[in-house]
UniProtKB/TrEMBL annotation:
CDD domains assigned: flavodiiron_proteins_MBL-fold
InterPro entries listed in its UniProt record: Metallo-B-lactamas, ODP_dom, RibonucZ/Hydroxyglut_hydro
Lineage of source species: Bacteria, Pseudomonadati, Pseudomonadota, Betaproteobacteria, Burkholderiales
PANTHER family: HYDROLASE, METALLO-BETA-LACTAMASE SUPERFAMILY, METALLO-BETA-LACTAMASE DOMAIN-CONTAINING PROTEIN
The name this protein goes by in its record: Metallo-beta-lactamase superfamily protein
């Protein structure tokens, strides 16, 4: 089989896996619909990268996804041989299942040094001892089989200690919470090649979760130096093709977000009350003049 990136995506509905790339020695596999879509939990993607006999899971997710991901990835790579559990940051939808991965594999956790001593709170005592690779703020190159995975700084997008992962073989950039779109698991399997109609699904999330336009501009300057065939977020659909990716970079480079949008109106003593029964807000009672 020749090299294949998403242009000819292989849909594997039986095991819920989607091949983003495959050649005879290297594969990138995406799982999009491991969580029941009942509206209670946000859709999330998980990733398996295999190079020869070395495997890594990127952003394995929480306990809601663990069983399905463990069984699904087992059809492509034995969990007992996993080398790394790689986390872009430390949110629950990224690594809340860490205790189970530490129990069922011999893999090391790769995570920002910012979260190195926080991540053990997801596990039982001692599970992470001598099994955490803390990544410095500047990132680095992580050996993966015969190749390397590039750990790129992506701090404050949105997490204080945050990394994206570039695979030079497939030319896929795994971007965590950057490029996220609010979709179903089925919709997340369909790559975006025309960015314009897709922006409404991304805009609200990025305006709230990304910290500032300054951070986005700094990241874009770095990302433009990479040869990217596909940009794959942790929620929603991949962005594929040079034009769509360039359009995305142009869009976020000019996006006002996070603290750019806040002023003193956002920091006022509240007057509304939360009803614990209806889980709704109700206005404060006002005195009625006699």
């Amino acid at each position: 089989m020749g090299n294949r990136t998403v242009g000819a995506l292989s849909h594997r509905s039986i095991d819920m896996a989607l091949e983003l790339y495959r050649d005879k020695n290297h594969a990138c596999i995406m799982f999009t619909d491991l969580i029941e879509e009942d509206g209670q939990a946000v859709q999330a993607n998980q990733f398996l990268i295999v190079d020869d006999d070395t495997g890594a899971i990127i952003d394995p997710g929480g306990n809601l996804a663990f069983n399905e991901l463990f069984m699904g990835m087992s059809k492509h790579f034995p969990p007992s041989k996993l080398s790394y559990i790689i986390a872009s940051h430390a949110d629950p939808d990224i690594i809340a299942s860490l205790d189970r991965w530490m129990s069922t594999t011999q893999a090391s956790l790769v995570i920002s040094r910012v979260w190195e001593r926080f991540a053990p709170h997801f596990t039982k005592v001692g599970k992470t001892e001598n099994r955490v690779i803390g990544v410095p703020d500047g990132g680095g190159h992580l050996p993966l089989g015969r190749h390397e995975l590039v750990l790129l700084p992506a701090h404050f997008m949105h997490s204080e200690g945050n990394f994206h992962f570039y695979d030079p073989v497939s030319r896929i950039l795994f971007t965590g919470d950057l490029g996220v779109s609010m979709t179903s698991g089925a919709e997340a399997r369909i790559p975006v090649t025309d960015l314009g109609p897709h922006i409404p699904r991304m805009e609200g999330f990025h305006r709230r979760y990304m910290v500032s336009n300054k951070i986005l501009r700094l990241w874009v300057r770095m990302a433009r130096q990479l040869d990217i065939a596909m940009l794959v977020p942790q929620h929603g659909a991949p962005i594929m093709g040079k034009k769509a990716i360039n359009d995305f970079l142009d869009w976020i480079e000019n996006l006002m977000c996070g603290i750019d949008l806040f002023d003193d109106r956002a920091y006022q003593i509240p007057t509304t009350h939360i009803d614990p029964v209806t889980r709704q807000l109700r206005p404060a009672l006002r005195a009625v003049n006699a």
